[in-house]
Amino acid sequence: TTWEQTFKVGRLRERLEERPSFDRFERRDVASGGDLAFSIFGTDGEADTYRLTIGVRRPLYQRWIFWDIEPGLEWVKDHDFETGFRVTAGIDMLFWGPGGN
Fold first, then answer.
1. In terms of Cα–Cα distance, which of 42, 44, 36 is closest to 73?
2. Of 8, 30, 44, 81, which residue is the least packed, with the fewest Cβ within 10 Å?
3. Can you give the pTM of this predicted structure?
4. Which among 8, 5, 14 is positioned nearest to 53, based on CA atoms?
5. pLDDT digits over 37-74, tens only?
């Protein structure tokens, strides 16, 4: 059995759809913001990967194309927990509009 535990803090600059209450939100709800995350991954009760990342998401074109980048550090048991560098980058396109599925 594989598992993951993540602790994330961030700054939400703008949501895709403003709501009157402050409730939970996911990355897909964010129009502009950034976060710092520390994750632990494992199998059968044993941690085998640790990851520290900084993520940024911003609009690229109006409110339907967004870019994001997430550089980070990773320590993997199979590599004797030596520090590895990683970068995840992407483009998201919103076709359904805010509030839709």
1. 36
2. 44
3. 0.77
4. 8
5. 999 999 988 999 999 999 999 999 887 899 999 999 99
